[in-house]
Design a protein that fits this description.
Elements lengths: L1 H15 L10 H15 L6 E3 L6 H8 L1 H15 L4 H9 L8 H6 L3 E3 L7 H7 L4 E4 L3 E2 L5 E8 L7 E8 L2 E4 L1
Parallel strand pairs: 1-2, 1-3
Antiparallel strand pairs: 3-5, 4-5, 5-6, 6-7
């Protein structure tokens, strides 16, 4: 009888506890908002944008440049203040189904080019005289308040810059 009483009391206390539910925004919505801010801040318009691949940013780095992928991962973890690979993997998995909003492409007059175009240099110079802008899928912290995104141009020796953005006063600001 004493055990039953303890169980009943425990259940009633458990049900009375207030749990605060945090509602996070949808990844695609916030990622598109951030990419739009990147385009605006850097005056990227009337240029070509490389189609954002289905693979995650780190998967692409690991395939193309395995030695650099390790340092890239460390940079991202530092900028987002992530302590474990598992946490980063979880955050990066959110990027898998990202689709850039066609309104952004139209607003900034971007010519979306397929990854296959990178193989034909002469054709790219005609189609994309300003170069091919490459933007990675943003990776956000768990609260969607800080993000990292790689920004660069195709056919350069640069790998692109991993930029940190923070949500402040209703917009994304580069730090």
């Amino acid at each position: 009888m004493k055990q039953l009483f303890i169980i009943v009391i425990s259940l009633s206390l458990f049900n009375c506890q207030k749990t605060e539910q945090i509602i996070l925004p949808e990844y695609n919505s916030v990622a598109n908002e951030l990419i739009q801010q990147v385009l605006k801040d850097n005056s990227f318009s009337d240029c070509c944008l490389l189609e954002i691949p289905e693979k995650t940013f780190l998967e692409i780095r690991e395939e193309e440049m395995p030695l650099i992928a390790i340092s890239t991962k460390k940079i991202i973890m530092e900028k987002l203040q992530i302590k474990s690979d598992k946490s980063l993997d979880s955050l990066e998995n959110q990027t898998r189904n990202f689709k850039i909003n066609s309104d952004i492409i139209n607003k900034y007059k971007l010519n979306l080019v397929n990854n296959d175009v990178l193989r034909f240099t002469d054709e790219n110079l005609i189609v994309c005289p300003k170069g091919i802008l490459i933007i990675s899928k943003p990776i956000f912290d768990k609260n969607y308040k800080t993000a990292v995104v790689s920004i660069g141009f195709g056919y350069t020796c640069s790998l692109g810059h991993i930029e940190k953005y923070r949500w402040k006063n209703g917009k994304w600001k580069q730090e």
